[in-house]
Write a structure and sequence with these properties.
This protein is mostly helical. The protein is about 65% helix and about 0% strand. The protein is elongated and about 60 Å long.
Length: about 80
């Protein structure tokens, strides 16, 4: 079984009462809400990155330039690993 954390929320009374009536404070419902919020946030971040790239696109690279970049990353990984 994975670890579980306890979270203390401070909410307006009416919101807390509505959430309680809807069962949103049950572990499965709370987990689903948090996971959904994380997915939405990640999607928003990806959209922001896409918009920045579209506003200032990278110049096209030749196959040789791409291979040079790949070779440089691999060489750096080998150096970092002490090979």
């Amino acid at each position: 079984m994975r670890g579980m954390a306890t979270v203390h929320l401070i909410l307006p009374d009416d919101l807390a009462e509505s959430a309680t009536r809807l069962g949103l404070f049950q572990p499965a419902a709370s987990e689903a809400m948090v996971r959904d919020a994380i997915r939405r946030q990640a999607g928003a971040e990806l959209r922001a990155i896409r918009e920045r790239l579209q506003a200032d696109p990278l110049p096209p690279m030749s196959e040789a330039e791409i291979q040079e970049e790949i070779d440089a990353v691999r060489a750096e990984k080998r150096r970092a690993a002490g090979r």
